[in-house]
Amino acid sequence: MENKKSFKLIEGQYDTDDAGRILVALISNKIKYHDVEAFRIQERSNGNVSHSEKRVKELTAMKEQIKQLVLDAAENGLDFKIRCDINIELVPAKQLAQ
Fold this sequence. Notes:
Strand content: 15-25%
Strand order of the largest sheet: 1-2
Number of helices: 2
C-alpha cells in the first residue's frame, strides 16, 4: 500500500464572494471539529484540551484575516486564485497507554 497520497481540494480562480464563502466554510468546519473534539475529551476523560483550544484561537484569527483579505480584494477589484492540496502520509498508529 502506498504510504503517501495527495488530493486536490481546491484549484481555480474565484471572485471575492465565492472565495470568501469557500475559505470561511473550510476554517469554520475545522473550528467546529476542534470544539467538538474538546467537548468529547472533557466528557469522556476530563482530559487536556489545550491543543484544541489553541487551534480554535489560531483558526479564529485566520478566519478574521481572510475576511479582511476578501474585503481588501473586493475594494481593489481583485479575484482569488486558490490552490489547496491535502497531503496524507500513513504512519504507525499511536499506542494508547494502558
